[in-house]
Amino acid sequence: MKRLLAAIAFVSAGAAFAQMTPVGVWQSVDDKTGEAKSQIRIGESGGVLNGRIEKLLRKEAKQDAVCDECTDDRKGKPLVGLEIIRGAKKAEGKEVWEDGKILDPENGKSYTLRLTPVDGGRKLEVRGSVFGIGRTQTWVRVQ
């Protein structure tokens, strides 16, 4: 019985630790309206995070919309599937991922990125900034 309880505790601790990462599916919220905006899937490869828009959630959103405002290789690409997070890496000894970029497809601008899981990994503080000036959104974990 003790071994079973120990195994359950170990698995539970592992699951909790696994959630303290940006990897997963997140729901973003519009800063102005508070309305659900999109779902973003963040993945990891070789210690580097990337994130793509998986689903547009606004009622008026056109699922076949493209990034007209983008100025790089993403110009004219569909918003669904668009990579908006590139190159974030875990900071040494912290539960923070930084040194990446995040794209705002509404204006085509890229910002320096900082991702911080909070609330036991159920939420993600997403900070985009230029020269230290920026804004932070809180995304909610879907998966």
Which SSEs are present, and which pair or pack?
Blueprint: H1 2-19, E1 24-29, E2 36-45, E3 48-56, E4 83-90, E5 97-104, E6 109-118, E7 123-130, E8 133-141
Antiparallel strand pairs: 1-2, 1-8, 2-3, 3-4, 4-5, 5-6, 6-7, 7-8
Reported for the largest beta sheet, the result is: 8 strands, antiparallel, barrel
Mean pLDDT: 88
DSSP, total strands = 8
Detail the poorly predicted runs.
4-18
Strand content: over 45%
CATH class: Mainly Beta
Please provide the ordered H/E string of secondary-structure elements: HEEEEEEEE
Order of adjacent strands in the largest pleated sheet = 1-2-3-4-5-6-7-8
User: How many helix segments?
Assistant: 1
**CATH architecture group name:** Beta Barrel
| Rg measurement, Å | 17 Å
State the CATH topology: Lipocalin
- Based on Cα principal axes, name the global outline: globular
Distance between the termini: 32 Å
